[in-house]
Amino acid sequence: MRSKKAQQKSERERRKSHRVRRDERVLVKIVSSSVEDLAGKIARCTTHDISQDGVCLQFEEPVPVGSTLDLRINVHDRSGAFILSGRVVWCREEGTNERVYAAGVEFQREGSDDLEAWRAMAGEDRPRPAKIERDVSRRRSRGEPV
């Protein structure tokens, strides 16, 4: 059995895009699941982090790997919500005193307008290399457009 540290490293290596820590409200409908009682269930949860290709969600109960989800993600500094679909690729217990489960959700339905808008929004949060940051700071100090 692999250690938790080795498992986390393995998950980071598989990620296709950069993750940004964000706490956003999400309404989730479990469309399908290997646990019959979960299909059709609605849950309110929050994001732990986001990327252009998926989110890490915090649930009060575990959601089986392979479950498909419909997501309505409200981003606090944007009007409207993103309506996205995804598949749970991992799920594990996070809390020690409270039962909190983190689930990695990979987005599906390439080409949807909301997915493209999400990717543009999530890409804005990517950290910039130091050289770009210096250039941006220099331009701002001169009053030039960035």
Concise description?
This protein is 24% helix and 36% strand. The protein is of the alpha+beta class and 146 residues long.
Q: Tell me, briefly, the overall form.
A: elongated
**Parts with pLDDT < 50 across at least 5 consecutive residues:** 9-13
CATH class descriptor name: Mainly Beta
Q: What is the fold named in CATH at topology level?
A: Thrombin, subunit H
Annotation, overall tally of beta strands: 7
Give the C-alpha Rg.
18 Å
Task: Please characterize this protein's 3D structure.
There is one protein chain. 24% of the residues lie in helices and 36% in strands. It is α+β, with helices and mostly antiparallel strands and 146 residues long. The chain is built from 3 helices and 7 strands; from the N terminus they run αβββββββαα. The model is unreliable at 9-13 (pLDDT under 50). The longest helix is centred in the last third of the chain and has 12 residues, at 113-124. The protein has a 6-stranded antiparallel β-barrel with strand order 2-3-4-7-6-5. The protein has a single domain, classed as predicted glycosyltransferase like domains (Thrombin, subunit H). β6 (81-93) and β7 (101-107) form a beta hairpin.
